[in-house]
Amino acid sequence: MTGTATDGAGNSATxxxxxxxxxxxxxxxxxxxxxMNAAGWYNDDVTVSFTATDDRSGVASKSGDTxxxxxxxxxxxxxxxxxxxxxxxxxxxxxxxxxxxxx
Length: 103
What we know:
The chain is 0% helix and 53% strand. It is mostly beta strands. A hairpin with a 5-residue loop joins strand 1 (2-6) and strand 2. It starts with a strand and ends in a 6-residue tail after the last strand.
């Protein structure tokens, strides 16, 4: 984009500028790791890992991993913020983990 300014004495100057616009929030994903039994329960602690991408301004921050222990119908939520303060989040629900048995 190029612009020109002229003052009252007729002096003028021209300059150009580039503008990048980021109207897109980051994309956030989640993955669950652990060993699930046939009944749909994890046999140990469950780790939920979060990923984030933003092809415009870049990712400024994202949630770290969440570790879930024993419990029924648990959830984990992660989020990310891009360099221009756009944000997004994701929640994983329905995670069931059985208690650890002592050896």
